[in-house]
Amino acid sequence: MGEEASKSVNFIEQEIENDIQSGRYPKHIHTRFPPEPNGYLHVGHATAICFNFSIAKKFGGKTNLRFDDTNPTTEKTDYVNAIKADVKWLGFEWDGEALYASDYFDTLFQFAVTLIEKGLAYVDDSSAEQIAEMKGTPTSVGKESPFRNRTIQENLQLFMEMKDGKHPDGSRVLRAKIDMSSPNMHMRDPVIYRIKHETHHRTGDKWCIYPMYDFAHGQSDSIENITHSLCSLEFRHHRPLYEWFIENLGIFPSRQIEFSRRNISYMITSKRKLMKLIEENLVEGWDDPRMCTISGMRRKGYPAAAIRNFCDKVGMSKRENVIEIELLESCVREVLNAEANRIMIVKDPVKLIIKNYPQRSSEELIGVDNPENEQSKNHVIPFSREIFIERSDFMVDAPKKYFR
């Protein structure tokens, strides 16, 4: 599996190399890691972090850390701080200061106005249920909204009223005007702005309308001149929409390349499901050692180098797959075997008296801190008539072949 994954990584790197050779993008590429601050990062995010930073480094480029904070309902500053700590703990430094999609709310708003002025966006009064019904299904075409043919002036006025807080949540949305018969559901007049009278963790109450993720994500990449937007396969169907925005707004053409999600056996890689474990008090929190979050693995004793090595061995592929957890555990053992000091402990002690050992005598045994390290120091192990052994190693009437 490692060899196959390596070939996939080379394939993606070759695509980037071709982009550079064609002159479409500069030699020093620019990537980004764009988490939503609505929870802690998990092992799947670790793969994306390692990949984005390592690819940029290989091509002499740089990587941004950008928080796609477009939903004030679920996002918290605590999550922002935890994500920053996880990225640094893994051993990576982003370029400059951390960035936020909320830094671009004014620009994104102007992008929306531009689409309206071009007749490519309209304000829709339909409910969420009505919009979903009008979109149709993958096997049937959608129906145009009765509000689709509003005039440009009417749409501009209503959108300004939305921004000024004159309409309640859910009463109106701004939709892109694309193609209700497209086989790609994401192209059927997607919602790009909605009303939310909620306080944002950074902008406070300045805004009561917020861009949808699909509108903010790709455009934020363009604003930052991200050359290659590396994301998971679930976004491959979103790519035509991002490219439509780029073309019709005339902005920097970031190129999206998808790779498979990192699914690991016996591990949950969904923030929504991890959140449910916390809400139902099945774990102590995001950093519970039983969680597959980066902070949980850190608390469990996993070295950062082990996670990096795991991501490197697995590589990237273009198809969904499940990686055996044994590979991750072997990477942890490999690093700990080379770095960790050996310490002997007795967890559940039983006192043992060696009757034929002289009383009031003792001696010191020498133990090597780490036999895998030639520069390792030694430690002293005291030995006397009275010692302690594990309770599980003791039995009065031991059966034949009892292993002690």
Describe this entry's structure for a reader.
- With 404 residues, the chain is of the alpha/beta class.
- It contains 12 helices and 15 strands.
- The protein has a 4-stranded antiparallel beta sheet.
- The longest helix has 20 residues.
Summary of the model, kept short:
The chain is an alpha/beta fold and 404 residues long. It has helices spanning 2-21, 43-58, 77-89, 105-117, 128-134, 152-163, 213-223, 239-249, 271-279, 294-300, 304-314, 325-339, and strands spanning 30-33, 62-67, 99-100, 121-124, 173-176, 191-195, 209-211, 228-232, 255-259, 263-264, 322-323, 349-353, 362-368, 378-384, 386-390.
Topology, element by element:
Elements lengths: L1 H20 L8 E4 L9 H16 L3 E6 L9 H13 L9 E2 L4 H13 L3 E4 L3 H7 L17 H12 L9 E4 L14 E5 L13 E3 L1 H11 L4 E5 L6 H11 L5 E5 L3 E2 L6 H9 L14 H7 L3 H11 L7 E2 L1 H15 L9 E5 L8 E7 L9 E7 L1 E5 L14
Parallel strand pairs: 1-2, 2-3, 8-9, 10-11
Antiparallel strand pairs: 4-5, 5-6, 6-7, 12-15, 13-14
Helix pairs in contact: 2-11, 7-8, 11-12
Supply database-style keywords.
alpha/beta, 404 residues, three-stranded parallel beta sheet, single chain, disordered N terminus, four-stranded antiparallel beta sheet
Low-confidence stretches: 1-9
Main sheet properties:
4 strands, antiparallel
Our measurement of the CA-to-CA distance between the termini, rounded to an integer number of angstroms, reads: 39 Å
Secondary-structure element order, N to C: HEHEHEHEHHEEEHEHEEHHHEHEEEE
